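=== RUN LOG ===
request id: a7f3
mode: sequence -> structure
chains: 1
length: 256
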Amino acid sequence: MKEAEARQREAERVRREAEAEAEAAQRAAEKEAKRLAREQTQNQKEAEKKAKKDTKKAAAAAAKAAQQVETHRQEVTGEAKPHRKSRLDKRYDRQVAALGLLEGETVTIMADGRSGVRRATMFITRYRVAIVGRSRRRTMVRWIPLEEVTKIETAWRGAPTLIVNAPIEVLPFKQRAKSTLQQLTRLVQSEVREARAGGGRRHSADLMQDWNDRMNQMLDSSAGRFRLWIRRHPWFTLVWLASLVPVAYFISRSRI
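=== RESULT ===
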């Protein structure tokens, strides 16, 4: 009886050991299968990445070759791809078009600043000194022939200001730095001296005809003479605006 029980226990132990070994073998097999699946997936992803990379390299090489061919074709045929203009170039073209350069007239000096409260650019060309506004909607243009400039002075009008005078025109031009304004003043004086030296190099008959027409219109118009006087005496505008303050105050008090 005891021997039968012992054999039964031994058989049970052997069975449990066999089951444990089978489970361990199954887990090991599953683990190995998962590892192989991961390796296969990783290898597949790496292969796809490599294929994409090779495709991109081939496309880049093809694009570079096509660009080289196109560049060579343009060099051979003399064709050039138009360059996109910057904002400064576009503004310069717009201001030059508003100024209306004459035949043979070129821009010598250009400086950005303000005229009054408006942003403007001072142009010094072969024949004239001009101030051109920077507004896109309405471009203000005022100019004086270099040989008609009577006085060049500097003053303080809220900022260092260069004032170019003529019989029928005044061009105030402000800049932030006094040193920059002094350099611009010397350049304007040099251009005016060269224009007055004679020889006809800085003289334009068409421009002087336009200037004389403007002068006649200004002298025949009382409103034009008054505007010129206001430009020569900007303090009057300040006094007039200051006088409106108490008037507005009394009007507002009377309505209460």
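=== NOTES ===
The chain has two domains: 1-78, 87-220.
The mean pLDDT is 81.
=== END ===
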